[in-house]
Amino acid sequence: MKTEYLCPVYRKxxxxxxxxxxxxxxxxxxxxxxxxxxxxxxxxxxxSKQAFEIAHAxxxxxxxxxxxxxxTKQDLSIxxxxxxxxxxxxxxxxxxAEAANCLNGAQQQLRGIAPLFACHYDILMxxxxxxNTLAHAAACYERETYRHRQLH
Length: 152
Prior knowledge:
Helix content is about 80%, strand content about 0%. It is globular.
């Protein structure tokens, strides 16, 4: 998944420091919600993009052997949630194709990391559930894009 919402050095730092990255992710989500509440939709979209890439960096960070499954499940759930939130921002700006691309990219990332959790059935099932949810939402946005193209 190619994204360009964060500086590559910052993204690498986030992967090496997942605890701090979780705090940065929360700050960006809160900023996006605040901007949206104030009607600053472009700023909300930018903050959502950054929150999504931070969530992605956390998911890709090296997992500590002593890290509980609960933390991993939370990170995966938040990643899927932020992907849906970002897709919603794109769709509200009449960018349904971009929304579908965002969700498809998130699906690919989840499928890519799934083998790392081969011994953790609960985490695999969560990844599968999030993947199915993202697939369903992406299909809805793709149908909307197709309808829009048919009209023009």
